[in-house]
Specification:
The chain has 1 helix and no strands. By secondary structure, it is mainly alpha-helical. It is rod-shaped.
């Protein structure tokens, strides 16, 4: 009887300490799992931010190219306009000289 009571008490003590040990062991695993999940989230957010930044840089490069082409087009138009005006002026002066020689 004495051994049975002692065995029962030992079993009860063992059964009371087992959940503490098991859950204590699980806490480390759960915490490690949470930490890895947080690292994954941060890594994904970093990649998303990197992709957004790269896309923004591509847009700015494209926009700069458009603006450069527009500036070149405007400059070319200005030069062509000036050349046409000089040509008109030269033709006008040649016409006037021709008229003045005819009427001389």
């Amino acid at each position: 009887m004495k051994h049975t009571t002692l065995l029962a008490a030992a079993c009860a003590a063992l059964l009371m300490t087992v959940p503490t040990v098991v859950y204590g062991w699980q806490d480390g695993r759960v915490e490690a799992h949470r930490m890895r999940a947080e690292i994954r989230r941060e890594w994904r957010e970093t990649l998303r931010e990197t992709h957004r930044t790269m896309e923004q840089a591509r847009r700015e490069i494209r926009r700069a190219g458009f603006e450069h082409r527009r500036a070149m087009r405007d400059a070319t138009r200005g030069i062509a306009r000036a050349a046409r005006q000089v040509g008109r002026q030269a033709r006008r002066e040649a016409r006037e000289l021709s008229r003045s020689f005819r009427n001389w």
